[in-house]
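Collaborator request, handled under Task 6.
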Amino acid sequence: MPRRKKSTPKKQSNILTYVAWILVFVVVIMGSMAVGYYLGYENSKKDALKKESSKEQKRLSVVKKLEDESAKKDELSVNNRLKEVLKKESKPADGAEGIKPAQESKLREEAKPAKEDKPTKESKLSEGTKPVKETKLVEASEEAAKEYEDASHEVDDAVLPKPPKREIVKSSARPKLAIIIDDVSVQSHVSAIKGLKLPITMSFLPPSKARPNSHILAAKEEFYMVHLPMEAQSFKAEEPLTLKIDDSQLKISQRIVELKTLFPRVGYINNHTGSKFTANEPAMDKLISTLKSQNITFVDSRTTGNSKASKVSKKYGLNYIGRDVFLDHQMDKPYILSQIKKAIEIAKTHGSAIAIGHPHANTILAINESKKLFADVELVLVEGL
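C-alpha cells returned to the collaborator:
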C-alpha cells in the first residue's frame, strides 16, 4: 500500500495566516461601520441642532416683531385717548398771569378744571377720559390748537425769567431731568399723564368748588406735589384761598397745615402764579419757615425774575430748587419740542434740570414724541433729583 503524506507545519501556518487576515478584515469592516455610524449620528445631530436653532431664530424674530408692533401701539395710544377727552371749554394753563381774565361762566360738572388767567382759548384736557382702541398717533385737532394761545405765567416785560446761574458739572453720572405737570385737578389729566408711561411729577391744585376731588385723585398716586396758589402782580382770576403778601404768619401756617391734612404725603410744593408773592421777601420768609417746620420743600416755579426764594432758602439752610425751563410758554408743539431739547441740554450741562408744563394736548403729545430724546438723561420724579 502507498504511504499517506503527512501534513506539514508549513501548511498549518498558512491556514492560520488566512484566518488571521479574515479576522482583521472583519474587524476593519466592523470598525468602519462603527465610525460611519458615529459620524453619521454626529452629522445628523448637527443638522438637527441647526434646524432647531433656525426655528428658534425665526420664533425670536416673530416675537421681536410683535413686541415692536406692541410698543408702537402703546406709543400711538396717547393721542387717541387725548382726542377722546379734548373739549373746548377748559381751564388755561398754570398761572398765565398778566393775561386778560376769563369771563365768568357756569361751573360744569364737579371735575371741570377752574378758569385762571385767560379766556378759554386752549385745548386743555377735561373730565371724562375713556381709553379708546389703540390705532395710530395723529396731531391734536386743528380746532383745539386754534382755541389755545399759550400757557405763559406772568412775567416781567413778557420775557421769561431766567433761572439762576448754576455750576457746570462734569461727571460720568447720567444727568437727571424732572418734568413737572402743573394744574392737575381732574381724572382726565391723571389718565393722560400716566398714559405716557414715564416718571412725570404731577402737581395738584388744591380742591375747590370747581374741582372738589383733586386731593382724592392725588391720594391714589405714590408721589405727588401740591400747586399752591400765590398772589400775582396783575392777575384777576385768582384761585380760592390764594396766599397774599399781607397774610400773617398764622394765616399762612394754618393754610399749610390744612393742605397737609388734604394731602398727607405732600413733600414738595410749587407756586401757582405768585409773581408778587415770591418777589416779596417777608412773605417768602413766612412761607418757607412754615414749610420747613412741616418737612415740605418749596420748588420755585420762577414766575418772576425777582423771586426771593433762593435767598430765603439759604437763610434757613435749605437747598434752592427752581425750574429751568417752561415747556409750554407758547403752545405750538414745535416750540414745546424745542423746549424739551433745551431742558435735556441744561441737564447734561449742570447734571440736573427741572422743566414745567401743563396737561394740554400739545404738551402731552410733545412729551410722548420725545421718548427717544430722553435716552440721553435719566427721567426722574422731583424727589429723585
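The cover message to the collaborator said: "Residues 9-85 form the longest helix (77 residues). The chain has one domain: 10-385. Please let us know whether this matches your experimental observations."
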